[in-house]
Amino acid sequence: MKKKGTAKRVALLLLGLTLLGVLVWRAGPKEVLAHAMSVGWGFLWLILIALGWRTMAATGMWLLFDPAHRMKWLTVFLIRVGGESVNTLTPFFNMGGEPVKALMLKKHVGLETGSSIVLLDKTMFFLASLVFMVTGLMLGVFVLSDHPAALATAGTLLAMWVVGFAFLIRQQARGRLVSTLTHWLALVRVRIRPETRERLDRVDQTLSTLWTKRQGRLWLSFIAHMAGRLLRSVDVYVAVLLLGMTVDFSTAYFIGAVGVLVNTAFAFIPGALGAFEGGHGYVFELLGMSAAAGVSVGLIRRLRTWAFAAMSYPIVVLYPTEAVGTSSRGAEARSAEP
Predict the structure, then answer these.
(1) Segment 8-44, tens digit of pLDDT
(2) Distance between CA atoms of residues 282 and 286, nearest Å
(3) Distance between CA atoms of 168 and 124, rounded to whole angstroms?
(4) Secondary structure (DSSP) of 124-181
(5) Pseudo-torsion of CA 307, 115, 76, 58, nearest 10°?
(6) I want to staple 175 with a disulfide (CB 3.0 to 4.6 A). Which of 73, 91, 204, 281 is the partner?
């Protein structure tokens, strides 16, 4: 089963690489290369912007911890950035870094609480992404008023994700998310040991407590994540400027939202490889700019993401995971106190 799953991920990765190759060929390799080379040292500005939104994302995660036992912000930043580097550099459908984050948090708050925080942080991240996509498509009504079919397609994709996400939040608030997932696993004959099931039930309880009794922290976390999503618009705006073109901020916001939507819709391809660049090319063409410029912007943004992830990955390798000073069970009990 494990070999079959690995083969599937590799096949999807190859599919993404093929799609990317076709896009670059159709857009014109020379033109795409010329656009990429024109960025020069401006690439560092994109690195700084990426640092900015990861800083806000780490703040969103940090705010979820109980104030009485809140971790140092820098520690949370290192853990989140390290986990996201795994998401970027490994073909695990953008989820491979979440267990890594939980294991890194185990030393500080225990595995159960760490897993709850990671799940809730991912939820806040996705919620901010949904709001970003919805508001971006609302701007699209004005930016792409001559292309209602494209907007309708994007709106349909987004509506499907909104429904699924609403179900996810409802199950978390009811304390039934993990139990529902384990029930689905049982249907495909994946057995879970009783002691593991007990841990998962405690994760559900922690999630429900946070949703029903700690809503202020959830709102603050959402605001921090939303600020990070807004920096995606700045990212697009600067990337376009580096290519020698200009767009207004509302258009950059729309393009950034479409990029997030494409990443979400094509999550089954590792990193939405090819689809992300193709989405940029398609939108740029609809906006009256060249598809080559759009593919180039998508490529530049991806290369920046890979570069940042490569710089962050040593955090995962070097981070100590052994319990220090106190047992993880004791730390977990304290962090879970109301």
Answers:
(1) 666 766 666 777 777 777 777 777 777 777 788 888 9
(2) 6
(3) 11
(4) HHHHHHHHHHHHHHHHHHHHTTT-HHHHHHHHHHHHHHHHHHHHHHHHHHTT-HHHHH
(5) 60
(6) 204
Q: How far apart are CA 263 and CA 289, in angstroms?
A: 22
Rounded distance, CA 177 to CA 171, Å? 5
337: its two tokens: 């106190």
Structural domains counted in the chain:
1
Give the pLDDT confidence score for residue 161 in this predicted structure. Answer: 72
Task: Calculate the CA dihedral of residues 150, 151, 157, 158 and round it to 10 degrees.
Answer: 160
Q: Of 284, 280, 279, 276, give the one whose Cα is nearest residue 305.
A: 276
Range of the domain at 196: 2-335
Q: Say how far apart CA 300 and CA 316 lie, in whole Å.
A: 25
- Taking the alpha carbons at both ends of the chain, their separation in whole angstroms is 41
Tell me which residues of the chain have a pLDDT lower than 70: 1-10, 12-16, 68-69, 91-95, 178-179, 181-200, 321-338
pLDDT of residue 152: 78
- pLDDT score for 10: 65
Instruction: Report the predicted TM-score, pTM, of the whole model to 2 decimal places.
Output: 0.79
- What DSSP string describes 240-272? HHHTT----HHHHHHHHHHHHHHHHHTTTSGGG
Contact by Cβ (8 Å): 295, 23: yes
Exposed, middle or buried by CB within 10 Å (0-12, 13-18, 19+), for 60?
buried
Q: Contact at 8 Å (CB) between 266 and 12?
A: no
Specify the DSSP class assigned to residue 90: S
> Which residues lie closer than 8 Å to 179 by C-beta, 6 or more apart?
200, 201, 204
Q: Compute CA distances 251 → 113, 192, 254, 277, whole Å.
A: 41, 48, 5, 17
pLDDT recorded at residue 132: 92
Q: Structure tokens of 74?
A: 């820098």
